[in-house]
Amino acid sequence: xxxxxxxxxxxxxxxxxxxxxxxxxxxxxxxxxxxxxxxxxxxxxxxxxxxxxxxxxxxxxxxxxxxxxxxxxxxxxxxxxxxxxxxxxxxxxxxxxxxxxxxxxxxxxxxxxxxxxxxxxxxxxxxxxxxxxxxxxxxxxxxxxxxxxxxxxxxxxxxxxxxxxxxxxxxxxxxxxxxxxxxxxxxxxxxxxxxxxxxxxxxxxxxxxxxxxxxxxxxxxxxxxxxxxxxxxxxxxxxxxxxxxxxxxxxxxxxxxxxxxxxxxxxxxxxxxxxxxxxxxxxxxxxxxxxxxxxxxxxxxxxxxxxxxxxxxxxxxxxxxxxxxxxxxxxxxxxxxxxxxx
Length: 342
Fold this sequence. Notes:
Elements: H1 2-27, E1 28-34, E2 37-41, E3 45-53, E4 56-60, E5 65-70, E6 76-77, E7 82-86, H2 89-117, H3 123-148, E8 151-153, E9 158-163, E10 170-171, E11 176-182, E12 187-193, H4 195-198, E13 206-211, E14 219-230, E15 237-243, E16 256-262, E17 267-273, E18 280-281, E19 284-291, E20 294-309, E21 312-317, E22 325-328, E23 338-341
Parallel strand pairs: 1-23
Antiparallel strand pairs: 1-22, 2-17, 3-12, 3-16, 4-11, 5-7, 5-10, 6-9, 7-8, 9-11, 12-15, 13-14, 13-16, 14-15, 17-21, 18-19, 19-20, 20-21
């Protein structure tokens, strides 16, 4: 009888235990973990640029007016030569008038110097003549400077690449009139990069160049210049790319090109499966990791993600090698969920 009672009790507790275990499994979530790998690598940077001269300037008038003459695009001009001029008839009139006034005041002053020796005039009158002479001379210098401002002068040996206005146009002071490029400098490709990309490149990084006009052919170049200051409007940094030897293709000013930069500088990343990403915004993401103090519980990690490539997250901070990241099943988890690892 006692043996029979013990058997019944054992059977009862077994049933209860199995039922409790079944309920626990029912309330748990089956997940898969993602392997964490530490890698050092760089990523290609794609940008777009325009062929320009390495030394190039936007030239303008310092005063406004109507353009009388502007040379054609492609015209070679030596340093100090005239590139364009605006109507200066009124300035010529003012210059001539100041020259006449100066001649008169100079004559009067020289005559006053003679008369003062004969005591024919007072010293106050001599000072007046001297002041008028000095003022007239200053007016001549001002008119001459203003006359020079009616011309655009070549800042170095080069050529007019682009005319931004035509003869007869009326322009305001400092409005761009022509783009002037050095005759001796070789062509390069100007592009602009964000601060995120600019910190990953360096001089002589290799660049693959594909021009719009030569879609079926690529060229090899390298980074020759990296700007130190951002553009005031766009906030982007200027980068110049020079091409290696070009065989028979004609590359001219203004050609558009797609650039793929291959940085030599590598960066350290932690990589996990993209399936582990449980949301985020911008470069910030969220992952689930097993609680190191209780492997049946989870914790939420905030991580910084630089890139997502080939279903892989490249993370710079927020995790370490010891974390056990949930890759699949995370969508069904919350902070109170119990974990079953598949």
